[in-house]
Amino acid sequence: MASAASPASFSLLPSTSSSSSSRRLSAPAAAAVVLRSPVRRLGFAGAAADSLLTAHVASKIREVVGRSGRGPRGVATMAKRSVGELTAADLKGKKVFVRADLNVPLDENQNITDDTRIRAAVPTIKHLLSNGAKVILSSHLGRPKGVTPKYSLSPLVPRLSELLGIKVQKADDCIGPEVEKLVASLPDGSVLLLENVRFHKEEEKNEPEFAKKLASLADLFVNDAFGTAHRAHASTEGVTKFLKPSVAGFLLQKELDYLDGAVSNPKRPFAAIVGGSKVSSKIGVIESLLEKVDILLLGGGMIFTFYKAQGLSVGSSLVENDKLDLATSLLKKAKSKGVSLLLPTDVVIADKFAADADSKVVPSSAIPDGWMGLDIGPDSIKTFSDALDATKTVIWNGPMGVFEFDKFAVGTEAIAKKLAELSGKGVTTIIGGGDSVAAVEKVGVADKMSHISTGGGASLELLEGKELPGVVALDEAVPVAA
Ligand code: AMP
């Protein structure tokens, strides 16, 4: 208890009294921390002071979660046949329809500004090429309404050719006689890039006739487009009805291994960090993770809904007033599951939502009227970091603050750096898509993480425990004989 009882540990308790003695744990309160079931005691306790107190005894987590008896639960539910199982015997001379996610950002001059998605697609394509297959590569780009030149895949050809070390051909459409002619003349070990599959509205409607036309170009199917796997589109789901085998590409497989496998069957203690703007957009993720994690750290704009639900004033911070009951029920659920749910104990507040706003650090319980919380404070960073020190698996989704403004990026960047440090110590670190990916990239630690998801919506849905149609439709993994 020594660390928990030190004055420094309690200096930011949300006490309404400022006297130093009132900030210290009274003997009975201190005893309560020891006497009750340790993991449950560290779980969020409902009342504001109590809940925030839990953050300050995070060091206890190290002692207790290890012996909490929470064993591994579940197994990967989406074990699918992988492209890695296909050898030259399966692939030589075969036409393989590969759905990739090449939806890269382009500037006004059609230059690729971030080629991550192209690079991520390369291992699968190279495996197919080295085994003598003819790769028919399909992707969407942007959200075109019909044929829209600025969403053509043509600007991708040079970079794709460079990365693959061969000259990639490109078709002007994704179906039709011209495409069929190009396919017919493809030599083994070559790539034909089809035009943006969303130039046809039938793609997103998953129309069987369109899927059949796409499938008719090939002998078998590889889905490597994790970013669109949560959508049942013709090129992700529809084609599987006509092509056998239909298998997972290496990228898709890796996403499933981490976001489904490592999360369902984690090395423990397992922590999740969830941030972002609104609790409403993360309800599914929080609820699902509460079933799996030992520790849940919350940050970002959503924390103010939790504070308000506990009767704290939040000034002009972002609050979803219709989600106060939900916040309360999530806190109760965490408690009943024995999950240590930690809210930030201090916040960086601003006098306006702007990069050059005046700012100061206050305890979470002392946000004045007219000020808004835009980042987690230094005490919270320390508490969160201490809690993370105890973990063996961490998944992160959503920034801790308005990290687009440098002044309010400190919490998010500190978490990114902490995860990089933990990765170096053998902790499995998973960045679950969206803005947290941008944050680790901004800090320059992306390559340190165990896994960075390439799919925002798809990774969220997977973390919510949903099945992804583009994955479900693939062939089941063949069990290895014992
Ligand atoms: P999401 O897409 O839900 O993960 O939310 C990401 C967005 O949340 C980012 O654009 C952040 O600027 C925003 N955000 C994070 N913290 C706050 C906050 N305290 N107040 C308002 N917006 C926030």
UniProtKB/TrEMBL annotation:
Its cofactor is Mg(2+). Belongs to the phosphoglycerate kinase family. This is Phosphoglycerate kinase. SUPFAM superfamilies: Phosphoglycerate kinase. Transmembrane segments: none annotated. Pathway: Carbohydrate biosynthesis; Calvin cycle. PANTHER family: PHOSPHOGLYCERATE KINASE (PTHR11406), PHOSPHOGLYCERATE KINASE 1, CHLOROPLASTIC-RELATED (PTHR11406:SF23). It comes from the Eukaryota. ATP binds at residues 282, 404, 433-436. GO terms for molecular function: ADP binding; ATP binding; phosphoglycerate kinase activity. Keywords: ATP-binding, Kinase, Magnesium, Nucleotide-binding, Transferase. It catalyses: (2R)-3-phosphoglycerate + ATP = (2R)-3-phospho-glyceroyl phosphate + ADP. One of its GO terms (cellular component) is cytosol. Its EC number is 2.7.2.3. The lineage of its organism: Eukaryota, Viridiplantae, Streptophyta, Embryophyta, Tracheophyta. Pfam families: PGK (PF00162).
